């Protein structure tokens, strides 16, 4: 299982990368709209649409965040036989964690 500290590091890393993504995509949008030559033609608009998609994705990821689902099952079957007494034990641990 991952520790709580790991989830904090992962959360902060996603926040920092999301902010970097927003800044670089906004800079890219500015450069495409103001500095691109007219010879690019319709390719310029493809780059604009791609940058808009990336900006939207970065905003959604930054504000909604990722959710980690951890699901683990541990099963253990023990069989003891002593004379005529038979002991059967079944141990099952199910754990579901949701980290956001």
UniProtKB/TrEMBL annotation:
Pfam families in the record: 7TM_GPCR_Str
Membrane-spanning parts: 12-33, 45-71
InterPro entries reported in the protein's UniProt record: 7TM_GPCR_serpentine_rcpt_Str (IPR019428)
Keyword Membrane among record annotations: yes
Top-level division of the source organism's lineage: Eukaryota
Keyword Membrane found: yes
Keywords associated with the record: Membrane, Transmembrane, Transmembrane helix
Protein name, UniProt field: G_PROTEIN_RECEP_F2_4 domain-containing protein
Lineage: Eukaryota, Metazoa, Ecdysozoa, Nematoda, Chromadorea
